[in-house]
Amino acid sequence: MVKFIDGESVWKRNFNYLFYSRLVKISADSFAFNSILWLLIYDGEGAIGTALLIAVTFLPEAFLAPITGPFMKKNTLKFWMYFSDITRAAVVLIIPICYFNGFSPLWFVMALMILHSATGAAYNPASVAIIPQIVNEQGIQKANALLQSSAQIVRLGAFTLCGAILTFIGPAYTMLFALIFYLISGFLVLFIKYKAVQTKTMDLPAATQRGTYFGRLKRGFVLVRKHQILYPLAIYCIFMNLAAAPWEALSAVYVAEELNSLPITFSLLKAVTSGGAFLMGFLLAKVKVNKYGLLFVTAGIIEGIAFFITGMNTFLPLVFLAAFAFGAAVSAINVPEYTIIQTSVDEEDQPQVYAVIHMISNLSLPAGAIACGYAANAFGSGKVIAVGGAIEILAGIGILLFTKLAKAQRSDLIREREASVHI
């Protein structure tokens, strides 16, 4: 029987500011990345520059998130988000100023982009952990779903608009739009007001280790390892990113070589994927889910099937159908993942746990992208994408059969949260 989400609306003052801040920040990130990408291309850096840009976009954030996580407390989350936005605004201001003055060597741009990526180590854990502070427990799933579905459409729109502006005024001037967006996003975050209430769990002896930096750092890893729901979730995230790496790295090559199609087909595939993600996010904002783990694993298996169908088939309508399924799976993966963390982990531990899980999973993405590049030269991009899908399907079946993740209900998540404070 389908149950719909009822109760209080999440559309209140604090969530409104968070919602619009996140969407503006997504636009800023899109403008910043694409502007710098084309700045490097126009400067003649070519494949080396773009490859380094992709690497420094993922790796610093993944490595630094667990290191910055212990500094985050419930009452400082919005300030970490503000700090991230202002730092990124400074980066996208410095690069064009130096470019206009004839100074834009690759090492300098990469150094600033490492700083740009590193600030995500603060923003992303804080933005996930702040939701339970401004939304009641019954509204957490809906809040995540609204943010996820809207983000997909905004990301697609920002990508398209940025491309048009780049064509007319060039990358350096386009970067100034990112500056404005970052400043607006940071300004909106400051309007979020909440009172961080200390929970009873803070009085427990097991929670005293949170008082030291190294205690909190170690605690994040220990919690993930001993948590009966988060540990298999983290393991499956690794396989998900390994499966996604071929598509992320080879999708444009696949469209050109396997489908013998034009860039417009690639753009349409991106649009269909975003449409699928938006519709699934909209559905999850309406329908109440009890078994978040089952939704997470099922969505992963469906994503794997979509990759497999895409890689083994060149019939264009079926490829578009797989792209839609892939987009829907992305929302059906992200929403339960965030909700599981926010529901099954004590509020003080959420930033660090999120950071640890994403460090573990995101490090597999660059490694997988490099490996699949060599494999594609030998076997073709389609086959490599299909192999990635097969890995995700098999890993999902294993997680489904041999762990408690898919069986866990909301009551189990709450029980795990209460047990985690004693770890």
From TrEMBL:
Its membrane topology: Multi-pass membrane protein
Gene3D superfamilies listed in its UniProt record: MFS general substrate transporter like domains (1.20.1250.20)
Primary subcellular site in the record, as a coarse category: membrane
Pfam families (UniProt xref): MFS_1
Lineage top rank: taxon: Bacteria
Keywords, comma-separated and alphabetical: Cell membrane, Membrane, Transmembrane, Transmembrane helix, Transport
Cellular localization per UniProt: Cell membrane
Membrane recorded as keyword: yes
TM ranges: 23-41, 47-67, 79-100, 175-192, 229-247, 267-285, 292-309, 315-333, 353-376, 382-402
Family matches, as SUPFAM superfamilies: MFS general substrate transporter
InterPro entries: MFS, MFS_trans_sf
UniProt-listed CDD domains: MFS_MefA_like (cd06173)
Protein name: Efflux protein
Organism: Bacillus atrophaeus (strain 1942)
